[in-house]
């Protein structure tokens, strides 16, 4: 495939009179990290929800891997490799880290493990889950209850759960929220390491992380893309500085 992995075309969504997505068009290219930034309430989460299939747009199209997926629900999109990272609340705190990932492996695999005897199926599931934990640097915590992990480790576990769905494009909504400096740096390293395998679209308020990670940055203000391009050009855009980055010193969000 030579074109963009994801093409968002003229997307619109309103809640009554409030237009939260206004004629949004953007492309996400394979093996890149595309960040969406913008002030609180700009419509970033609503946009991601429309891309994941959680929310239907009022109009416009979502083209993924060359196919129009606008009408597909979330499960069908996950089946095609377009997944939204799970929120902390979807981790099962009373289950081990390994079990949390194994459940996602099983959900992704559907009936593919039916040819195994039960014990072998469980081993195959756990082996695949362990690979995902290794991918995110959490294999040493496999037996720990998810609820007992640190905040940063829970974020890593979310990523392992997301990876278990074998995504080609991962939608990440504020993955660094609530993390400390060191945890954030570890997650930034993890995203950079995963980039050759998984394309990512990232909503993030941590501007250091955004400008360290992103190949492309789109700026959303009142539901509209006001700038899109490489980080240096977006950072230098006067409209962006006025609408968003300039606010940072006085009103971080
Ligand atoms: N279900 C809903 N019904 C009505 N209004 C909504 C609904 N969901 C979101 N909104 C409004 O839509 C606007 C965009 O919200 P959204 O959460 O997408 O913004 P955001 O850019 O992700 O904000 P933040 O950075 O604070 O997370 C906000 O004004 C919000 O109050």
Automatic annotation (TrEMBL):
<dbReference type="InterPro" id="IPR027417">
    <property type="entry name" value="P-loop_NTPase"/>
</dbReference>
<dbReference type="InterPro" id="IPR051120">
    <property type="entry name" value="ABC_AA/LPS_Transport"/>
</dbReference>
<keyword id="KW-0547">Nucleotide-binding</keyword>
<keyword id="KW-0067">ATP-binding</keyword>
<dbReference type="InterPro" id="IPR003439">
    <property type="entry name" value="ABC_transporter-like_ATP-bd"/>
</dbReference>
<keyword id="KW-0813">Transport</keyword>
<feature type="domain" description="ABC transporter">
    <location>
        <begin position="6"/>
        <end position="247"/>
    </location>
</feature>
<dbReference type="GO" id="GO:0005524">
    <property type="term" value="F:ATP binding"/>
</dbReference>
<dbReference type="InterPro" id="IPR032823">
    <property type="entry name" value="BCA_ABC_TP_C"/>
</dbReference>
<protein>
    <submittedName>
        <fullName>ABC transporter ATP-binding protein</fullName>
    </submittedName>
</protein>
<dbReference type="InterPro" id="IPR003593">
    <property type="entry name" value="AAA+_ATPase"/>
</dbReference>
<dbReference type="Pfam" id="PF12399">
    <property type="entry name" value="BCA_ABC_TP_C"/>
</dbReference>
<dbReference type="Pfam" id="PF00005">
    <property type="entry name" value="ABC_tran"/>
</dbReference>
């Amino acid at each position: 495939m030579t074109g963009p992995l994801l093409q968002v075309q003229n997307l619109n969504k309103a809640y009554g009179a409030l237009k939260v997505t206004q004629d949004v068009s953007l492309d996400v290219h394979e093996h890149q990290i595309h960040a969406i930034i913008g002030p609180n309430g700009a419509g970033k989460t609503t946009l991601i929800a429309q891309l994941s299939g959680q929310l239907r747009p009022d109009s416009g199209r979502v083209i993924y891997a060359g196919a129009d997926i606008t009408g597909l629900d979330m499960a069908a999109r996950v089946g095609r490799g377009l997944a939204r990272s799970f929120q902390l609340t979807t981790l099962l705190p009373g289950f081990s880290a390994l079990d949390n990932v194994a459940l996602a492996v099983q959900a992704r695999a559907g009936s593919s493990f039916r040819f195994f005897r039960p014990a072998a199926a469980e081993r195959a599931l756990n082996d695949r889950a362990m690979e995902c934990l290794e991918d995110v640097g959490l294999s040493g915590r496999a037996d720990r209850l998810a609820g007992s992990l640190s905040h940063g480790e829970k974020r890593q576990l979310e990523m392992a759960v997301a990876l278990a769905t074998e995504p080609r494009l991962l939608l990440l909504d504020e993955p660094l929220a609530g993390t400390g400096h060191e945890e954030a740096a570890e997650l930034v390293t993890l995203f950079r390491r995963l980039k050759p395998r998984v394309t990512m679209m990232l909503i993030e308020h941590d501007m250091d992380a955004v400008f360290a990670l992103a190949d492309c940055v789109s700026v959303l203000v009142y539901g509209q893309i006001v700038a899109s391009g490489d980080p240096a050009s977006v950072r230098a855009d006067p409209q962006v500085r006025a609408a968003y980055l300039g606010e940072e010193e006085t009103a971080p969000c």
